[in-house]
Amino acid sequence: xxxxxxxxxxxxxxxxxxxxxxxxxxxxxxxxxxxxxxxxxxxxxxxxxxxxxxxxxxxxxxxxxxxxxxxxxxxxxxxxxxxxxxxxxxxxxxx
Length: 95
Prior knowledge:
Elements: H1 2-8, H2 11-17, H3 33-49, H4 51-69, H5 73-93
Helix pairs in contact: 1-3, 2-3
Protein backbone atom coordinates (compact mmCIF):
# COMPACT_ATOMS: atom_id res chain seq x y z
CA UNK A 1 0.00 0.00 0.00
CA UNK A 2 2.86 2.36 0.75
CA UNK A 3 4.05 2.18 -2.85
CA UNK A 4 0.52 2.91 -4.07
CA UNK A 5 0.32 5.88 -1.69
CA UNK A 6 3.44 7.38 -3.21
CA UNK A 7 1.75 7.34 -6.62
CA UNK A 8 -1.77 8.38 -5.67
CA UNK A 9 -1.69 9.71 -2.11
CA UNK A 10 -4.22 7.25 -0.72
CA UNK A 11 -6.88 4.96 -2.16
CA UNK A 12 -9.41 7.65 -1.22
CA UNK A 13 -7.54 10.23 -3.32
CA UNK A 14 -7.40 7.83 -6.25
CA UNK A 15 -11.11 7.07 -5.86
CA UNK A 16 -11.94 10.77 -5.78
CA UNK A 17 -10.13 11.21 -9.08
CA UNK A 18 -12.33 8.60 -10.73
CA UNK A 19 -15.71 10.08 -11.58
CA UNK A 20 -18.66 8.67 -13.48
CA UNK A 21 -17.36 10.40 -16.57
CA UNK A 22 -13.95 8.70 -16.35
CA UNK A 23 -15.12 5.16 -15.61
CA UNK A 24 -15.19 3.27 -18.89
CA UNK A 25 -17.99 0.95 -19.87
CA UNK A 26 -17.38 -2.52 -21.26
CA UNK A 27 -17.23 -1.00 -24.73
CA UNK A 28 -15.66 2.27 -23.64
CA UNK A 29 -12.12 3.58 -23.63
CA UNK A 30 -9.10 2.05 -21.93
CA UNK A 31 -8.75 2.89 -18.22
CA UNK A 32 -7.14 6.23 -17.52
CA UNK A 33 -4.34 6.86 -15.02
CA UNK A 34 -6.72 7.57 -12.13
CA UNK A 35 -8.66 4.37 -12.65
CA UNK A 36 -5.49 2.34 -13.00
CA UNK A 37 -4.06 3.96 -9.87
CA UNK A 38 -7.24 3.13 -7.97
CA UNK A 39 -7.11 -0.51 -9.12
CA UNK A 40 -3.43 -0.83 -8.20
CA UNK A 41 -4.00 0.74 -4.77
CA UNK A 42 -7.03 -1.45 -4.15
CA UNK A 43 -5.17 -4.62 -5.13
CA UNK A 44 -2.19 -3.67 -2.95
CA UNK A 45 -4.42 -2.90 0.03
CA UNK A 46 -6.34 -6.14 -0.43
CA UNK A 47 -3.11 -8.13 -0.47
CA UNK A 48 -1.45 -6.34 2.44
CA UNK A 49 -4.45 -6.45 4.76
CA UNK A 50 -5.37 -10.06 4.02
CA UNK A 51 -9.01 -9.03 3.76
CA UNK A 52 -9.93 -12.02 1.59
CA UNK A 53 -8.63 -14.49 4.18
CA UNK A 54 -10.31 -12.63 7.02
CA UNK A 55 -13.60 -12.49 5.17
CA UNK A 56 -13.40 -16.19 4.37
CA UNK A 57 -12.62 -17.09 8.00
CA UNK A 58 -15.47 -14.94 9.31
CA UNK A 59 -17.90 -16.40 6.77
CA UNK A 60 -16.85 -19.96 7.70
CA UNK A 61 -17.30 -19.19 11.41
CA UNK A 62 -20.79 -17.79 10.77
CA UNK A 63 -21.72 -20.90 8.79
CA UNK A 64 -20.42 -23.23 11.51
CA UNK A 65 -22.40 -21.32 14.15
CA UNK A 66 -25.57 -21.37 12.03
CA UNK A 67 -25.24 -25.13 11.45
CA UNK A 68 -24.74 -25.70 15.18
CA UNK A 69 -27.72 -23.50 16.10
CA UNK A 70 -30.00 -25.26 13.63
CA UNK A 71 -28.63 -28.80 13.86
CA UNK A 72 -31.96 -30.20 15.08
CA UNK A 73 -34.01 -28.69 12.26
CA UNK A 74 -33.39 -31.33 9.58
CA UNK A 75 -34.40 -34.09 12.00
CA UNK A 76 -37.53 -32.17 12.99
CA UNK A 77 -38.47 -31.64 9.35
CA UNK A 78 -37.95 -35.34 8.61
CA UNK A 79 -40.19 -36.27 11.59
CA UNK A 80 -42.83 -33.83 10.37
CA UNK A 81 -42.75 -35.33 6.87
CA UNK A 82 -43.05 -38.87 8.25
CA UNK A 83 -46.01 -37.79 10.43
CA UNK A 84 -47.75 -36.16 7.46
CA UNK A 85 -47.21 -39.24 5.31
CA UNK A 86 -48.62 -41.54 8.02
CA UNK A 87 -51.62 -39.25 8.42
CA UNK A 88 -52.15 -39.16 4.65
CA UNK A 89 -51.93 -42.95 4.49
CA UNK A 90 -54.55 -43.29 7.27
CA UNK A 91 -56.90 -40.80 5.60
CA UNK A 92 -56.63 -42.49 2.23
CA UNK A 93 -57.00 -45.95 3.76
CA UNK A 94 -60.33 -44.87 5.35
CA UNK A 95 -61.83 -43.99 1.96
